[in-house]
Amino acid sequence: MADGQGDPGVFTATALPADPRLLPTVTNAFLGTRVFRDILHAAGVYSGAAGDTHRADVPSPLELRMAAPGVRSPAESFTLNTWTGTFSHTIQTPGYTATHQLYAHHSLVPLMASSIISRRSDGSTHPIAVHRQSLFVPQSQDLDLTPGPDFQGAHYIYGQTLVPEVEGGPRPAVHMLWTPIPQSLTLGGEERERCWEFLTAVAGSEEEAKRSYSEGLSLVAAGSLHRSHVRAWAALRRGCSVELDGPLALRQALQGCLYYLLSAIPPRDSPGVPFHGISPGGLSNGTRGEDYWGHIFWDQDPWMFPNILLLHPEAARAILHYRIRTLEGAKHNAREQGYEGAKFPWESAATGREVCPEEIYGAQEIHVTGDVLLAFEQYYCTTQDQKLFREDGGWELVEAVAQYWCSRMVWSEEEQLYHIRGVMPPDEYHSQVDNSAYTNAVARRSLNFATDMARDLLLPVPEEWEDRARKIKVPFDEERKYHPEYDGYSPGEPVKQADVVLLGFPLMHPMSAEVRRNDLEMYEPVTDPAGPAMTWSMFAVGWLELKELQRAWSQLEKCFSNITEPFKVWVENPDGSGAVNFLTGMGGFLQVVLFGFTGFRITRSGLLFDPAFPDDITKLKVSCISYLGNKLEVTITREEMRMEITETSRDPPAPPLEAVLESGQRFPLWEGMA
């Protein structure tokens, strides 16, 4: 990748990708769509029973494309501006310019909006018409929709999903109001410029849809609809700012990842709105047969969550609340398989019950339960928020996960260790294996966290939690000094994706530098190059740990084969198959920057750091790291690392922080001091 100039957060093209799946998305955590698509999705609105449940298609009035009648081959451009959270399409002719903007409003989340601005570029006085092309029809294959009376100039439809996820369960309601868009928009002969604005409000109740639409109209009347969105989005971006000096392609990838991932999290000013999790392809995708049907996987917890936690702990808390809210479904899953406690589903929708259409994954890929609890542990170590556990259901979840792992283990008389048998590890090329190294290590970590959490909450600790954590088998080859993926794994067997390398990070399983190196050396050459995008980021983090900077860079570069042009939309696999807008891969990529280059490690005793980055990068600045109620700005160059507290919580008061060097030298940190 060559260095280059240009704004790394603005992606412009004169033509759209041939594959419509690679069009950019506009999302605000409650509503989302792909540009120029005739459907949108609302968070938590699924239709279909069990393994057939999928995001319900809501017809989208926002699906329109401008055309300039009578103009041959006008100049066109398409721009995704990640700084303003806005997509635009511009047509330029000799006599006028027309721009269509589309965005999901980031402070009024039940609202999506578009505008068309027509502006003369000469002295003519004849009327100018811009036509719209649209496939919008107010019908859905997933919703029983009924027209209602118009409201403040808007058309209105409402209805419910056709099939509940669980027999006899709720069928989510959808109420939608939208501004009718005429076939032609005309700039009058005496007008130099005109702006038309169109609103779409979607909510779970008529009252909320009407309230949001009315608020949108008020913002339109004040001339501040788009400005209010940009202000809210810019505040989120400032609060999660990550910048680096390096190749343009790397900086573009970074800002693209931040745009798509931050679009998926709840806004700061909507604490009362339930959050429904983040699926691999995000809210804009997930119709039946697409992007895993909008289900929530482990992709959310170890891949996306750590970045969100470091930059926006309130949003991280909302993600944990999704898991707490679906705990009863997880308990049902455990009972159904004959175990105690809670088994989180491989694929989750609204209830927490297993909705994976293929039984083998739901039955065997049980490491997801430990992945969920790892997120709770990271959150607690970063925030010390005991309220989540004492009052908001967090402890019940921790306890249920510990009970599940205990009931899932069996004692081996031969080895005098606990085994977990018949599982599929993260490497999905193998199934029905015994003692997956990753599964057992994450189970041990779950039990250790449950024990520590119980003590912090002054609760009794069941003896079996500590006993099983001590005695669970994590396969290790004493001769070769590496971790076999499972009992009976033979060196050289192909591996689908990151698996054993996850022991080093994010699990931080105890091992020497020699063993860490051996694990990387063993699995890097046998990991499928056609596998999912997040894999190479974890190899990059491992090599950064060992200060093998060129090897880390070569792994990070592999990610770029999953980033499509021109809008930096990720695909799951380099051949374009799998999920698109693949937030999992973006989450892994961001972890290379936020945890690999900085060396940050979230531990019970502190936030460790050990920076390292390849030669092509000269500076990294992360402006708003959240830790124990403090906001830290961290700047790393080849010469120094600067750390400044920019904000301190007053209620509750944040504890004082200090930086401790390996030499033992301590530097107190306080607000405003670098």
List the helices and strands and how they pair.
Blueprint: E1 10-13, E2 25-27, E3 31-34, E4 39-42, E5 46-47, E6 54-55, E7 58-59, E8 65-67, E9 75-81, E10 86-92, E11 96-104, E12 111-120, E13 128-133, E14 143-151, E15 154-161, E16 173-178, E17 184-187, E18 193-203, H1 206-221, H2 225-239, E19 242-245, H3 248-262, H4 299-311, H5 313-325, H6 327-336, H7 359-364, H8 367-383, H9 387-390, H10 394-408, E20 410-412, E21 417-419, H11 437-456, H12 463-471, H13 513-523, H14 535-545, H15 549-558, E22 563-564, E23 569-570, H16 583-597, E24 601-602, E25 607-608, E26 619-627, E27 630-637, E28 641-648, E29 657-660, E30 666-669
Antiparallel strand pairs: 1-9, 2-3, 3-4, 4-7, 5-6, 8-13, 9-10, 10-11, 11-12, 12-18, 13-17, 14-15, 15-16, 16-18, 19-26, 20-21, 22-23, 24-25, 26-27, 27-28, 29-30
